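Serine/threonine protein kinase
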Amino acid sequence: MNQPIRGYTLTQWVGSGGMGEVYQAYHTATQRTVAIKLLSRMEQAERFRNEAAVQASLRHPHIALVYEFFVENGLSCLVLEYIEGPTIEQYIRKNGPFPEETAWKLLAQIASALEYLHSRDIVHRDLKAGNIKIARPGKAKLLDFGLARAATSPKLTHEGHLIGTASSMAPEQFSGRSSSASDCWALGVLLYEMLTGQPPFGGNTQSETGRRIQKGDYLAPHKLNPRLSKASERLIDRLLTVSPDRRMTARQVLEALHHPALLNAPDWMGPVRKWWDRVKP
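Structure:
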């Protein structure tokens, strides 16, 4: 597509999202390089407008900015901050696990973004390694609010319909429910992947992955990374807790990252609860 769209010249294809194609673009008048998301599925137009409305209201150093949203010749366009750098998923695929110190730094940045969202009654609902870019120098940026839900968002999902990426979904999302606690489960999945290079809930089929998630059945991360600290293991354990009411919040994660001694307090009932989650029918 060589024809400029409202002053934006598309310069490079970046990738595909759940609802459209993403391009790098340049605006001659402002001399700004941006990312433009073009809606490719017209049946998703209402969700696309909701993404624009939710993300445009946000200002946080670890959330990608929205500059504008418009419809040009029937084409819905979302203009976003362009972020140079790989996603966390791309980094892991190329380099393997992150050093623990780096993983904690990135986790703190994303937890800060989640705490900001949750304080505004916004749930991201699709937090995953592929939706977080690492800008230079080591600054995480949360992307893709296509599934985000704010208190003021219209109801766009039928009751019981699954929303999210299966491997990062919390147990309750398989029943069509989601909350800020669901984002925190996904934060635990993200930390596990950053520290081991592997997703915690593998499976040959989506139903097998779902069964393991709903049981909280994952391989202890130190078996994949023997150098892992006890603090990281406990943090993962307290995020990948089946009951959303017992899961750490984004604010608690931030507190634990700043004061790791908080993770040293023994959780005597934790192993019992984990065992019950795995054996209960």
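The beta strands are 8-16, 20-27, 32-39, 66-72, 75-81, 122-123, 132-135, 139-142, 149-150.
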